[in-house]
Every structure is written in C-alpha cells, then in structure tokens.
Amino acid sequence: MSALFGAKYFGFILSAFGITAAVLLALTIWIVLVHKSRLRQLDALEKAGIKRASRPNG
After folding, report:
1. Distance between CA 58 and CA 43 in Å, rounded?
2. Count of domains in the chain?
3. Domain, as residue range, for 37
4. CA–CA separation, 51 and 18 (whole Å)
5. I need a surface site. Which of 40, 47, 56, 57 has the fewest CB within 10 A?
C-alpha cells in the first residue's frame, strides 16, 4: 500500500477510483428512482382496474 502512495501516478489512480465510485453511486440512485417510479405506475394501473398477468389470483 505504501508503494501506491509514493507512486507518481497516485493522482491518476485516485481520480480513476473516484470517478468509478461516482458513476456506480449515480447508477444505483438512478435504478432506485426508476424502480420506485415503476411501482407507482403499477399501483396507478391496478387502482384503475388493470391487473397484472403475473398475478393469477389478483
């Protein structure tokens, strides 16, 4: 680990890890928001009387 901190490419490595972490965080947030939106859409459709085909008893 000490070789990493002394390397002349430390800034590049750190920024690459930072960008990767930011992209993964943004994708995770996006997926959660889209999931919640889809659940709201399904609830609205079910309240309107449209049932999902995947629910045989519903």
Report:
1. 13
2. 1
3. 18-49
4. 44
5. 57
Query: What is the Cβ-side half-sphere exposure of residue 35, based on CA atoms within 13 angstroms?
Result: 6
10's CB contacts (< 8 A; 6+ apart) are 4
Rounded distance between C-alpha atoms, residue 2 and residue 11, angstroms: 14
Tens of pLDDT, residues 36-54: 999 999 999 999 988 777 7
Q: Please report whether residue 22 resides in a domain.
A: yes
Q: What CA–CA distance (Å, rounded) separates 43 from 37?
A: 10
- pLDDT for 15-40, tens place per residue? 999 999 999 999 999 999 999 999 99
Report pTM: 0.68
Tokens 């609830």 sit on residue: 43
C-alpha to C-alpha distance for 22 and 4, rounded to whole angstroms: 21
